[in-house]
Fold:
Amino acid sequence: MPLLQIDQMTHYFGGLRAVHDYNLEIEPGQIRGLIGPNGAGKTTIFNLITGIYSPTEGDIRLEGKDIFGLQPYQIASLGLGRTFQNLRLWRHMTVLEHVMQARYSKLTYGLLGAFFGTPKRQREEAESRKMSNELLELIGVRHLADQIVVNLPYGAQRRVEMARALATEPKILFLDEPTAGMNTEELAQMMATIRQVHKELGLAIFLIEHRMKFVMELCDIIQTLVFGEVIAEGTPAEIQNNPAVIEAYLGKEIET
Amino acid sequence: MTSFLQNIVNALQWGSFYALIALGYSMVYGVLMLFNFAHGDIFMVGAYIGFFVSTGLVALSALGALTLPSWLILTLTIIVAMFLTSFVGMLVERIGYRPLRGAPRASAAITGLMIGIILETGNLALLGAQRVSFPALIESVTYNIGGVFVTNKKVLIVVVSLLLMFALHQFVQRTKWGMAMRAMAVDFVVVPLMGVPLNTIAALTFALGSGLAAAAGILFGVAYPVLDPYMGILFGWKAFVAAILGGRGSILGAALAGFLLGFIEIFVAAIFPSTLRDLIAYSIILLILTFRPHGFFGEAYSAKLRL
Structure:
């Protein structure tokens, strides 16, 4: 059974068809890429799957469970974590607080614990802190744990976003342009980090990216989206040689 | 000098009421980007609930069914009334604001005003127009400290208020709900994607604010034992001013601004004729806001925070 399965998902914004007949199957542990020109609807697809928008029609299943129409927090708790194209951090909170906050659904202490600090809360928080620190270690920002995120360099902020998404203990991680705005060196580091995360946590990854080198090296299977429709799907080699993809990116050759 | 110190003592008490009420305004504004204009009336409802709880306990004690010392009655009154009033707050959120999540902000603000009117007139319909007097639970004792008169009630009011503010601060800083509230104040779109149900946090925010307003209502009843259905209106407006002055969503800011408001009012009244008190006091605050439009601890925020 695929980890995530989407059948015939279509979405309209008013009269505008943003996504048409979108299908996806992600197996556990797979790394998937989604590429396409600006405005093709890539982030919209992320928003539809994570529940920010409700698709006009379609079928979305996570581990066989229908998640269509669920609230975003329910979908997140079921094992779907994501980062954002434009950083969306909570400016005045520390790195550790970001990661601890994302473990909300894993903490089960009640209001009594919140007001009177019951042993259960102490235990849960200590464990949560330990796991959060391990995660920060994995992502390479452990040394920044007590920093306010707004003071961090851009690359580190991107990593905090990833750590926060991973703190929800996702089975599948959505990365929306994880290398946007990064230089070549940072890009190589990010690629190494993603590989490391993938290896150690054994989760599936679904990523949107514009940097072709990054996508081609990292992904098992890539989809190309143009005007809300998948025009090609296949391995990196297949995608690179697909005439429809080349046309979408470079334009059509004029026949003389 | 003694009159100066005397005014400070009075201002601390007066500011406690503003600070406690302002916290509820500020939290709702911070977390939900919403002005809950019914908040002053929730303060009134809290005072009335406190009145019923304490009157009931006093009556039971008088009948001999219970023998409770009056300090215990007061403690129980505060706890029970805070608890019950927090449900009033959650009810207001559930039926008043939640259906309007996607609506223009003006609609939500007007809803607050309407809920306020409903609470005031509902009280009037249920209890009639006469004022009620809050039972005198503790006997007033006045200490003369070098010419400055401090009553035990004033000490109680300031100490309980500060304790509650400290508890709120701890809650917001340390618990998972408090962290969710702080996160929502910055970027609420992301919060549910980390597995946090927005509605739970919204209800909790209202519950906490309303509980604090109830505490303010009871403490007010201890100091000024006459309650009427419209007592929350002016208090609510002034606490709203304090919340804005403190800065969006800032607990420290709202508390400080509440006390500052108390100080300005008391000292203006000490210098100028008391009929001019609010005119001068709020002109000063208008001036402060002109130079610090985001308040003491607020910051410019973007429209994308809208819920």
User: Anything to note?
Assistant: The two ends of chain B are 50 Å apart (CA to CA). Confidence is low (pLDDT under 50) at residues 302-307 of chain B. Chain B has one domain: 2-132+152-305.
